[in-house]
Amino acid sequence: MADNSKTKERLKEITDSIENGIKELFESDKYQQYLRTMSRFHSYSLNNTVLIAMQKPDATLVAGFNKWRDQFSRNVKKGERSIKIIAPTPYKVKKEQEKVDPVTKAPMLDTNGKVLTEEVEIKIPMYKVVSVFDVSQTEGKPLPTLAENLTGDVKYFEIFMEALKRSSPVPLFFEKMPEDTDGYFHTTKQHIAIREGMSEIQTVSATIHEIAHSKLHNYEKERQEKVQSDENDEPIKPISRQTEEVEAESISFAVCSYYGIKTDENSFGYIAAWSKGKDLPELRASLETISKTSSALIEDIDRHFAEIVKEKGIDLSAEKEKLPAYYLTADKVNAIVTDYGTEGKLVSGELELLIQNVGTLANSINNKLIMWQSDHMGEGVPADVEQNIVEQQISALSKELAPKELAYQMGDFYFSIQTIEDGYDYSIYDKDYNLLDGGVYDDPDISIYKAIDYILEDEPAMDFSTAKDIDYEELTEKADQAWQESVAVKKAEVLSDEPMQEHTYPLPDPDISILDRNSYGYLYDEMLPLTKERATELFEQDLTVYLLYEDNTEAMAFDLKDIDNHGGIFGMERTDWIASKDFEELNAAERFSVLELEQRFLESPADAYAIYQLKSGDKYRDYSFEGLKSLENRGLSVERDNYNIVYSDKFTGFASTRERLEELWERFNIDHPDNFKGHSLSVSDIIAIKHNGIVTYHYCDSFDFVKLTKFLESVPLVPDSFLTGDRIDTPRGSFSLTSMTKEQMSAAGYGVHHTSDNGSYYIMGNGTHAFAVRNEDNPLRTAEMSTERNYNQIDGIINNQPTVAELEQTVKAGGQISLLNLSRAIREDKKEKRISVVEQLKNQSVANKEKQKTAPYTSAEMER
Question: What one GO molecular function would you report for this record (predicted)?
Answer without folding.
Answer: single-stranded DNA binding
